[in-house]
Amino acid sequence: MKTRHLRLGLCGLALTVMLTGCVTPYDYTNFRAHPPRSILVLPPLNESTAIEGTYGYLSTVTMPLAEMGYYVYPVVVVDQFMKENGLPTAGEMHQAPLDKIRDIFGADAVLYVTLKQYGTKYQVINSATIVTLYAKLVDTQTGLVLWEGTATAQQNSSGSGNIFADLVVAAVSQAVNSSTDQAHDVSRMANTMLLKTKDHGLLYGPYYPKDKQ
Amino acid sequence: MEAGETVSNTRVKLLPLLLAVPLLITGCQSPYVYHWGHYEDLVYVTYAKPGKLPPEAQVLKMEEDLQKAASANKPVPPGFHAYLGYLDYQMGKPDLARQEFEKEKVQFPESTVFMDCMMTNLVTK
Q1: How far apart, in Å, are the Cα atoms of A42 and each of A55, A111, A192, B108?
Q2: B83 pLDDT exceeds 90?
Q3: Chain B residues inside the 8 Å CB shell of A13
Q4: In CATH, what class is A26-196?
Q5: CATH fit for domain B32-124, picks 1.10.150, 1.25.40, 1.10.8, 1.10.287
Q6: Which of B26, B83, B117 sits opposite A192 (nearest CB)?
Q7: Residue B6's pLDDT band (boundaries 50, 70, 90)?
Q8: Quick one: pLDDT at residue B31?
Q9: DSSP secondary structure string, A157-205?
Q10: Do B33 and A209 touch (CB under 8 A)?
Q11: Is B30 on the interface with A (CB under 8 A)?
Q12: B14·A71 Cβ contact <8 A
């Protein structure tokens, strides 16, 4: 009985990774002309129905950017600073003039992220957690788009055909999902796909160790 | 309930596998540049569960991270000292806040303009 359930668990949890199907490499001309050292990440515009997406996502983006070699401004401090200075929402922050951002933060570039999808969809015995991102890196001095990209990460939990076992899995997985905000974890996968996909991801920054390049 | 518990255990064991997937995609096995500790978890908790971890509790976790980073001989990530300074400021300790903002500037000169701006705020408030 025990082995059977172990197997069910492994089969039931299928991980789907969907890479954007672009063929031609990204044109990095603008990026190479204005390579940034520092990136200001604003809270994302949230086009999903999950209000928790805005900050669930924001807490996953510092690590990948910093590990790629960039100075990343402290996301909470930036968010609070902007709120205290008359920009209470992500939408308003995304409208802030670039010259002001440069004056106040000294940032070389701003990363504008839009959450196209964020959250878990439940059916009776299945669930799918999906995060779809669009991101645009803009040079604060010239206003040029240095880089942009999209990515979708999806994690499925699907049935095995045995309705009784599946209902148990579904119940457990809903309990797990609601307590840990699964989309928050899937955001990390989406970031990896967005930033690290060969020929389309972000190029490495100045703090990236030379021996790793 | 026995069956439920078995499945639950299986899922728990699968979690590390899921977390490892981003690493597999990039094919990069090398360790992180920075010692991350609780930094991003604190960002998450601050917004997802407001009030659950007040500034005092967050500062304790970050001081723990600083010690671990030092013993691992790794730097703390960009924004770490700035955030710690921000927490000090919230706790009404502007002198400690200033020290942390200065540390952020030394570690990452890219932060200079913003840290100076934060320190000007300390004076005026």
Answers
A1: 10, 7, 18, 19
A2: yes
A3: 11, 14
A4: alpha beta
A5: 1.25.40
A6: B26
A7: very low
A8: 80
A9: E---S-HHHHHHHHHHHHHHHHHHTHHHHHHHHHHHHHHHSTTTSPPP-
A10: yes
A11: yes
A12: no
Task: State pLDDT tens for residues A97-122.
Answer: 999 999 999 999 999 999 999 988 87
**Pick from A66, A172, A189: which is nearest to B34 by CB?**
A66
Give the amino acid at A174.
Q
Place of tokens 């409208």: A95
Summarize pLDDT for B21-59 with one digit per residue, the tens.
544 444 444 489 999 999 999 999 999 888 899 999 999
ipTM (interface predicted TM): 0.81
- Residue in A1, A13, A65, A73 to test binding to B, most B beta-carbons within 10 Å: A73
Secondary structure letter of residue B51 according to DSSP: T
Q: Does B32 touch chain A (CB under 8 A)?
A: yes
Q: pTM to 2 decimals?
A: 0.80
The nearest alpha carbon in chain B to A154 belongs to B18
